[in-house]
Write a structure and sequence with these properties.
mainly alpha
């Protein structure tokens, strides 16, 4: 238990530090962009980025996290032969898919030029290059994540954010760029991060250097078993999530898209800070579940309790500070985003349990149950949210109906698959000696990390 706690704390510390730095850079970069562009221009950039997100569905097919979970699980069993073949297969898949999808989007840019003009076509062409880079990016992240190289992972994300901020500063502030320049910042960000982190990628793979890979197609075997359900789940998220913007645009206009995106991005920053522990959990839980299920059960109970209270406290603080932040940086330009953020924040109530439920279901290879939960949630949420958007504007998609439905369905499936992981919510209001010991250990661990840093 102590070694797992230490690994998770180290990963959480590195992740939270990286995310705070990333959020600071991202927030200042976003402020510069929002001040330079009008709401209509920014809305077009958001729609162009949504094209990337839609095509990313077919780039990764959702199996990246399944590969991470399998790499971590095989590490727990020291099955290095399968790990090497799995990485090799995944790399080939990402390069091939990246080339094909980039060409499709590039051809589509000529049609967009005919109907929307050269500037919009430029946004689409830049998007086509970004899609290819995302394939390489997926490979690096998957390897870092699967081998629990949280330091490398944190450095990669930080370099992406730093590159994007510098690009925004020079292209937007110094050279007074417009929509195309903003889109270029999305391209330069992964490009420089990939170039710098390539040596770290090969360093992470050093344990596999003299290992002979298995002969069978490891990626195909993964897809045939539990991976195929994640392939179906990924389009559900990556198609429906960007589709929200088009629904909002249809019922409320391009300006409403910008208002919704600002609220969603701000809420995303808050979530990344509060739930930074989720990053190390996917690989650590997958690895440790192969060794001792009872320890993982104990870990699940404790982390769920602590992060539920952390999330609730964070929600209350965010309710108070959000208007102050927006009036300080945007005056009244994006005041309409504040009520949307309040609605988003209500999902924090269940966030403490949800933060570990998904990694646990991945470790149990319960992708089928994850797909069922997400699908049932989506078919209920999207028609209802669309109708609310028709009546009240973008607030329809800010109300966390989907988050609560997904939580309920996942909890039911977890109870069915592994009843030992079912939580007694009354225990959240009880504290024992071990709670005080772990809290002290967590606090001292973070203090020591900060001191060493």
């Amino acid at each position: 238990m102590a070694s797992i706690t230490k690994k998770i704390l180290e990963g959480a510390f590195l992740t939270s530090t990286q995310k705070i730095l990333t959020i600071v850079l991202g927030a200042f970069g976003a402020i510069l962009v929002l001040q330079a562009l009008g709401t209509r221009q920014y809305g077009f950039v958001v729609l162009a980025v949504s094209i990337i997100n839609i095509f990313n569905v077919f780039l990764d097919l959702g199996i990246g996290n399944v590969v991470v979970s399998d790499i971590a699980g095989d590490s727990g069993e020291n099955n290095l032969k399968r790990i090497k073949k799995l990485i090799h297969d995944y790399f080939g898949f990402q390069i091939t898919a990246g080339i094909i999808l980039s060409l499709i989007v590039f051809v589509f840019s000529f049609f967009s030029q005919k109907y929307y003009g050269s500037e919009i076509a430029s946004l689409v062409r830049i998007a086509s290059v970004i899609i290819f880079l995302n394939g390489l990016r997926n490979v690096l992240i998957t390897v870092f994540y699967g081998f629990s190289k949280f330091g490398f992972l944190a450095l990669f994300y930080f370099l992406e954010s730093l590159a994007k901020f510098l690009a925004v500063f020079f292209l937007i502030v110094i050279f007074n760029g417009g929509m195309v320049s903003v889109m270029l910042t999305y391209l330069l960000s992964p490009f420089f991060a990939i170039i710098i982190m390539l040596p770290f990628y090969f360093a992470a793979r050093l344990p596999l250097r003299n290992i002979e890979a298995v002969k069978e197609n490891a990626l195909f075997d993964l897809i045939k078993t539990h991976g195929k359900f994640q392939i179906l789940a990924r389009p559900l998220h990556n198609t429906l999530d960007p589709f929200r913007y088009w629904i909002i645009q249809y019922f409320a206009g391009v300006e409403a898209v910008a208002v919704f995106q600002v609220a969603l991005k701000f809420f995303g920053y808050l979530s990344q800070i509060v739930f930074s522990i989720e990053t190390p959990l996917l690989s650590v839980v997958s690895e440790e579940l192969r060794r001792d299920k009872q320890i993982v059960k104990k870990l699940f109970e404790r982390i769920s309790k602590y992060f539920t209270w952390i999330a609730v406290l964070s929600m209350i603080i965010s309710f108070i500070l959000t208007p102050i932040f927006f009036h300080m940086f945007f005056q009244e330009k994006y005041d309409a985003s504040i009520p949307l953020i309040y609605w988003f924040l209500f999902s924090f109530v269940i966030g403490g349990v949800s933060v570990l439920m998904r990694p646990l279901l991945f470790a149990l290879k319960a992708q089928k149950e994850l797909l069922k939960a997400d699908f049932l949630s989506a078919i209920i949420t999207y028609p209802f949210a669309s109708y609310l958007t028709y009546l009240y504007g973008p607030v329809g998609f800010a109300i966390p109906i989907g988050a609560y439905l997904t939580f309920i369905f996942r909890f039911r499936y977890l109870k069915k698959i592994e009843p030992i992981f079912v939580i007694n919510f009354y225990s959240f209001f009880k504290w024992d000696k071990e709670d005080y010991f772990l809290i002290k250990r967590i606090f001292c661990g973070f203090i020591n990390k900060i001191y060493k840093t």
